[in-house]
Design brief:
- This protein is of the alpha+beta class and 457 residues long.
- The protein has three domains: 235 residues, Nucleotidyltransferase, domain 5 (2-Layer Sandwich); 148 residues, 2-Layer Sandwich (Nucleotidyltransferase, domain 5), CATH 3.30.420.40; 57 residues, no CATH class.
- It has eleven helices and 21 strands.
- Strands 3-2-1-6-11 form a five-stranded mixed sheet. Strands 14-13-12-17-18 form a five-stranded mixed sheet, with helices on both faces.
- The chain is globular and about 100 Å long.
- It starts with 6 loop residues before the first strand and ends with a helix.
Length: 457
C-alpha cells in the first residue's frame, strides 16, 4: 500500500504512546487500518524528560501499528500538551493592494504569517494561529471572508504558544524514531475533532481531556475556538495518591483505580473491601472501596476546581458566553466511575462522556472507541484534513510525447483563438485566421498545415 493512501496520528502521552493508522473511505468516513500502543517511558506531565526512552516507546508503538495495519509508517501528525502551553488573544490586519479583487486563501495565509512573526517571551514559539472572526474594511463579525472585496483584512486570533525546548525535544524524538513530522497539533484541539459535534461547538461547549499527566481544556462557542489551556494534573496523580494513601505499589494502585475506583464516596458501601496481594510472602491487605473513593474524590475535586477556574476566566457563566452544551469529558481519566455526575455537581454544567466512535466507519478496533484514544483519533483526523487540502496532481495531456510536439484540436468555438499547436521549441506561424472569417474545419486545417510547414523548416 502506498504511503499517500493513509494517514497516521501519534499521541505521545504521559502513560502511553498511541499510533493510529487510517484512511478515508469512499463515503468520506474514517476507516481505521490498525493501531499500536506502548507504555510511555521518558514523558512526565506531557513533557519529554528522557529522549532515548521516549524514542524507544515510539518505535515500539509504531512497530505494533505497522504490524496491525500492514503498512510502513513514514509520516505522522503529532500531538503536543504539557504545562508549558499557554494561549493569548491577538488582533492584526493587512492592506490589500488590489481591493477590487476577491479575497482568497492566500490573503488569509499572509495575515496568519504576519501573526506568526509576533515576538514571544524568551524561549517560546508559536504553535497555532487560529482565526476567530474577520473584519473586511468596516464590516465585522465575518466567519469566512473568502470571495469578498475589500482593502483592509483584519482578524482576531487565538494564538497557542509553547516552550521551544519542549517542542524541539518532541521533534527530535519523532525524527530519531525514523519518522517525518507532518504537523504538530495541540492535543485538546485534536480531541475536540474526535468527540465534539458541530452543534455542540455552535451552542458552546468545553472539552475536558483528562490524560495521565495533564488535563487539557478547549472551549468553543459559535463554532469558534475561544480558550485553550493545560492543567498539569491528570490520572497519574490520582494513582500516586492511592499508592501513598493505601501504602501499596503503583501497579496495584492503578488497578484499584481502574477496576474499583469512584469519584463519589457516597455511592460506595462501608462493608465492601478489595483484597490486595501482599509483597513477598507478606499477608494480603484489605482496602475499603469507600476509603478508596475518598482518596480519589479529594484529587478529582481539586482538578475539577481548576477546570472551573478556567471556565470562569473565559466567562462561561455569563449569559452571552454560556456553554449551552456543557462539558464533554474524554481521555483515560474520564473512565472513572461517577466522574460525570461529580463534574456536573462541581461546575453546574451538564456533562457527558466523549467517545471517538462517531467518525469511525469500521468496527475493526472496538477498543479504540474508549475515551482514552480520542486524542489519537483526533490526530488521525487532523492528518486526513491536511492531506485533503494538498493539491491533487491533474492528469493533463502531455505537451511532448516521445520528443515530438503534441497537436491539440478542439471544436469549441471559444477555443479557436488559442494556440493549438504546442512545441518544445519556439515556432512562429503567420496564419491569419482572425482576419478572414473561416469555418471551423478551415481553421483546423490551416493550423495543422502551418505546423508541418514549421517542422520542415
Amino acid at each position: 500500500m502506498e504511503n499517500q493512501n493513509y494517514s497516521v496520528g501519534l499521541d505521545i502521552g504521559t502513560t502511553k504512546i498511541v499510533v493510529i493508522v487510517g484512511r478515508r473511505n469512499s463515503q468520506g468516513n474514517i476507516e481505521v487500518l490498525g493501531a499500536g500502543k506502548a507504555k510511555s517511558l521518558g514523558v512526565n506531565k506531557g513533557i519529554v524528560n528522557n529522549v532515548s526512552q521516549t524514542i524507544s516507546s515510539i518505535k515500539n508503538a509504531v512497530e505494533k501499528a505497522e504490524k496491525s495495519a500492514g503498512v510502513t509508517i513514514k509520516q505522522v501528525t503529532v500531538g503536543i500538551a504539557g504545562k508549558h502551553i499557554r494561549s493569548l488573544q491577538h488582533s492584526d490586519y493587512i492592506m490589500r493592494n488590489q481591493p477590487e479583487t476577491y479575497i482568497t486563501e492566500d490573503d488569509i495565509e499572509r495575515l496568519k504569517d504576519q501573526v506568526k512573526k509576533l515576538v514571544m517571551l524568551p524561549g517560546e514559539e508559536i504553535i497555532h494561529v487560529l482565526p476567530q472572526e474577520y473584519k473586511v474594511d468596516s464590516q465585522g463579525e465575518i466567519h469566512d471572508p473568502i470571495g469578498m472585496h475589500g482593502a483592509r483584512l483584519e482578524a482576531k486570533f487565538h494564538v497557542v504558544v509553547g516552550q521551544m525546548s519542549s517542542i524541539k525535544n518532541i521533534v527530535k524524538c519523532v525524527e530519531e524514531s525514523g519518522l517525518e513530522m507532518e504537523s504538530l497539533t495541540l492535543e485538546p484541539l485534536a480531541s475536540s475533532e474526535a468527540v465534539l459535534t458541530n452543534e455542540e461547538k455552535e451552542a458552546g461547549v468545553a472539552i475536558v481531556d483528562i490524560g495521565g499527566g495533564t488535563t487539557d481544556i478547549a472551549i468553543f462557542k459559535d463554532n469558534i475556538i475561544r480558550h485553550t489551556c493545560v492543567i498539569p494534573y491528570g490520572g497519574g496523580i490520582i494513582t500516586d495518591d492511592i499508592k501513598e494513601g493505601c501504602s501499596i505499589i503503583a501497579d496495584h494502585a492503578e488497578k484499584l483505580k481502574v477496576n474499583f475506583g469512584s469519584a463519589l464516596p457516597e455511592m460506595e458501601k462501608e462493608s465492601t473491601y478489595v483484597t490486595i496481594p501482599g509483597l513477598h510472602s507478606r499477608p494480603d491487605k484489605e482496602i475499603s472501596t469507600k476509603t478508596l473513593a475518598q482518596i480519589i474524590n479529594a484529587r478529582v475535586e481539586e482538578i475539577l476546581e481548576l477546570v472551573n477556574t478556567e471556565l470562569k476566566a473565559y466567562g462561561a457563566y455569563e449569559q452571552k458566553k454560556k456553554l449551552i452544551a456543557g462539558i464533554v469529558l474524554t481521555g483515560g481519566g474520564s473512565n472513572l466511575k461517577h466522574i460525570r455526575q461529580f463534574t456536573s455537581y462541581i461546575t453546574g454544567f451538564d456533562s457527558r462522556l466523549g467517545f471517538a466512535n462517531e467518525y469511525i466507519a469500521n468496527d475493526k478496533n472496538q477498543s479504540l472507541k474508549s475515551p482514552e484514544y480520542a486524542t489519537g483519533i483526533g490526530l488521525l483526523m487532523e492528518s486526513l484534513k491536511i492531506r485533503d487540502k494538498k493539491p491533487v496532481a491533474k492528469t493533463e495531456q502531455p505537451l511532448v510525447e516521445n520528443n515530438k510536439p503534441v497537436i491539440t484540436i478542439t471544436s469549441n468555438e471559444n477555443e479557436q483563438n488559442k494556440t493549438d499547436v504546442m512545441m518544445d521549441t519556439k515556432v512562429e506561424t503567420t496564419v491569419e485566421t482572425q482576419k478572414n472569417k473561416k469555418s471551423i474545419g478551415e481553421v483546423i486545417l490551416s493550423k495543422v498545415k502551418a505546423f508541418f510547414e514549421a517542422v520542415e523548416d
